[in-house]
Amino acid sequence: MPTLKSMAGAIVLAGVLTIAGCEPEDRASVPSPLQAAATYAEPAGAEIVVQDSALAAQVFDEGAPIERLTEDRFGWSEGPVWIKDGAYLLFSDVPGNTIYKWSEQTGLESFLQPSGYDGEDTTGVFREPGANGLIRGDLPGTILLGDHGNRAIARLDLETKDKTLLATDFEGKRFSSPNDLVLTEDGAIYFTDPPYGLKGEDASPFKEMPFNGVYLWRPEDDGASVVVIDDSLTRPNGIALSPDGGTLYVSVSDPEAARVYAYTLGPDGLATERRIFVDLTAMVEQGYAGLPDGMAVDVEGRVYVAGPGGIHVFLADGAPIARITTGAPTANCAFGDDGRTLYLTSGAFLARVRLKATGLGFEG
User: Fold this and answer.
1) Tens digits of per-residue pLDDT, 91-129?
2) Are 275 and 260 in contact (CB under 8 A)?
3) What's the predicted TM-score (pTM) here?
4) Are 105 and 207 part of one and the same domain?
């Protein structure tokens, strides 16, 4: 049993500082912190594995610590997004059907529950009913999300918590469980639709799509449209764009083909060429935990890929730089704070590491 010691209104639990306080009476209007703002020690097994020392020196300070920010409390943390107006991070617990909020000032709070499906799953449709990927919104004061439970890509108003479903189907067939997404400069959205949200996945009787696709949603004056970018991938998952918007990256979380593909995009936003950006299948075969998943990109075009063994950092040509490991499988990452902090959704907990590099979207 860990020992607790009272100290000046705080509680020290196994060397970790958290703030003790009372529950507010009005829980709806004053969210109760689930865990007060405190930085944990470096997770067991955390390290930065350098693969090219010269390239890594441009990204990391020597000895940069990986900081654990929460206890083990999530079923599978995913989809981090930094909210500049308010200086806080949102991320999802997909099986827990919850979006959480974390900030330096207030620590961890429940932000939205349920985050996806809001009814009773009486027919056993869902394996994971919550929201998954979260990104900055196309309108002020919003975020966009891959909504497993509503089988849609959606827009969420951060103040009212009102949700608008942007796309739910293609050619009359419902999506399986939109997973991750990326916004273009002109307001279009690329997204992936694997079957992970459905119980039984590909074998689910509720799966309507005959493939697991990569799509492009485009807002248009006469109504939005959806087109297929790729219908041949087994498990499309994470998705990101290069700084110039000319290359689309898509990760495939298939243990037998654990790859990231790079698509050259034409002026119409459609793919003109596909190539293997990196192949991590050998690491899966060697027993490293995790599969290719969420991604982030910095202003220099480096790509940060969640995969077997942690977050892999690559140059835009696929040359490996380093790997960030938290000691646990890591599903996704996102830049936050001033653009030089990389937040890591690492299975049951949240972590971060400071970088020299600046994330895309933080240039100003």
Assistant:
1) 999 999 999 999 999 999 999 999 999 999 888 999 999
2) no
3) 0.89
4) yes
